[in-house]
Specification:
- The chain is mostly helical and 436 residues long.
- Among the domains are: 111-140, no CATH class; 167-223 and 265-299, Helicase, Ruva Protein, domain 3 (Orthogonal Bundle), CATH 1.10.8.270; 309-433, Ypt/Rab-GAP domain of gyp1p, domain 3 (Cyclin A, domain 1, Orthogonal Bundle), CATH 1.10.472.80.
- The chain contains 23 helices and no strands.
- Helix 5 (125-139) packs antiparallel against helix 18 (358-371), helix 8 (182-189) runs antiparallel to helix 10 and helix 14 crosses helix 15.
- The longest helix is centred in the first third of the chain and has 26 residues, at 19-44.
Length: 436
């Protein structure tokens, strides 16, 4: 960065008595501040680049371009000053105190952010990816009080293996107008996280409609023109195994002929809530679109089919896992007729995005995208275990389970990691594949 102009020194004059001379000095002072500030801003500003990250190599450049130099503001004139020193000294501006989030955001870059910015060393992509996932689990993504992070969206793009998606292609989908599922989309969007002020302040209903309608067109085109199965599969890492599932286009819906198009196959109720965190965390609609489309087609296609068979398998797994890790609690709930299908359907379908607060949802998703969305089943079980005493003491647990307590992502993640060890291999394998 070029050095700013040195501030000018006023001549050593006596304090003028004339008001006209005082105004002249203030004009000179204002000119000094504006000249030096404008020169500094002109030297430090650089054109914004709209780039999306497909791998660690391009991420370093993109992330560095998002850092902006702080703008120097003009000092406020002191109209009632009586001395030359008062005229020259700028009035200190009051700044809002930084929110305390328990992180060092804005002060010192974390190891996670450094890895994202610098990329893998010596081309060791797999080792860097393993380290990235470990840092997500151990250090947590730095974010402000609203859950916003300058690099979370790039982390998600890497973890979900999202390829670059041209902005023009997204605009072309938007300009096609209403999809066959448009009426259903409009019937759901106005209710999306309706009681969450953070979401309402940042995401408009119009952007949610555009994104869901564009995804509906994309899925519509996939059904009309089936794609071949991707040749590469997702690498098995650690004990959390994720295989690349077939796309929705390859599995025709029950009762539909090959190539037939039905609006229930390209949009199902609940996709609006599942889409919401992508829009909230994304820096643009295009990034949110690329992430959401990749997620529903590659990670959980069974959730968005017309039968929602993946969601129903997930609900049965919630009951089975709860029975394994907490048999007393499971027996009590079953005796009251409380199976997961009665209280956990929204949590399974939306990966707990239906449970506020939204900043905690984002932290939970960091973990799920790093180690597999299938672990959402155990995250729901962890929430039930945290409510264990209240449930066992309640004669009507259905009232407690109508809405889960506010998410506490850190505690839920810690408990989920412990629960993984208690799940038998065959049940865990079902959990990995239930959303395909």
């Amino acid at each position: 960065m070029a050095k700013s102009k040195p501030s000018w020194d006023l001549p050593d004059l006596e304090v003028p008595a004339s008001p006209r001379t005082m105004r002249t000095l203030r004009k000179i002072q204002s000119h000094q501040v504006l000249t030096s500030s404008n020169a500094l801003i002109a030297q430090t500003q650089s054109p914004r680049q709209d780039a999306r990250v497909a791998d660690f190599g391009s991420l370093s450049t993109t992330a560095n371009n998002t850092v902006r130099a702080p703008a120097h503001r003009r000092a406020r004139s002191n109209s009632d000053a009586a001395t030359r020193e008062a005229v020259i000294a700028p009035v200190p501006t009051q700044r809002r105190p930084a929110r305390k989030t328990g992180s060092s955001i804005g002060l010192k870059r974390s190891l996670l952010e450094n890895l994202l910015r610098d990329g893998p060393q010596n081309g060791r992509t797999q080792e860097a990816l393993q380290e990235l996932k470990y840092l997500v689990l151990s250090t947590r993504v730095d974010a402000d009080g609203d859950g916003m992070s300058p690099y979370r969206i790039y982390l998600w793009l890497i973890l979900l293996h999202v390829p670059p998606f041209p902005t023009d292609d997204y605009l072309a989908l938007v300009h096609r107008g209403g999809s066959p599922a448009y009426a259903k989309i409009r019937n759901d969007t106005f209710r999306t996280l309706a009681t969450d002020p953070l979401f309402k302040r940042r995401v408009t209903e119009a952007s949610l409609i555009r994104l869901l309608n564009a995804v509906a067109w994309k899925l519509h085109d996939s059904k009309v023109k089936p794609r071949s199965r991707p040749s590469s599969s997702r690498r098995r890492e650690m004990e959390l195994l994720v295989n690349t599932p077939p796309s929705i286009a390859e599995e025709p819906e029950p009762g539909c002929a090959d190539g037939a198009v039905g609006d229930t196959a390209i949009y199902v109720q609940g996709m609006n809530v599942l889409c919401a965190p992508f829009l909230y965390a994304g820096r643009s609609e295009v990034e949110a679109f690329a992430l959401f489309h990749q997620f529903v087609t590659m990670e959980c296609p069974g959730y968005v089919r017309s039968t929602m068979d993946g969601v129903h398998r997930g609900l049965r797994l919630v009951d089975r896992c709860l029975e394994i890790v907490e048999p007393k609690l499971a027996t009590y709930l079953f005796s009251k007729g409380m199976h997961a299908e009665l209280y956990a359907f929204p949590s399974v379908l939306t990966l707990c995005a239906c449970t506020p607060p939204l900043p905690e949802v984002l932290h939970l998703w960091d973990f799920l995208f790093a180690y597999g969305p299938h672990l959402n089943i155990l995250c729901i079980v962890a929430q039930l275990i945290r409510m264990r005493d209240e449930i066992l003491e309640s004669p009507s647990p259905n009232k407690l389970l109508r809405s889960f307590p506010p998410l506490q992502a850190k505690d839920i993640i810690a408990l989920t990691v412990l629960l993984v060890r208690k799940i038998p291999d065959d049940v865990y394998a079902e959990m990995v594949n239930h959303a395909k």
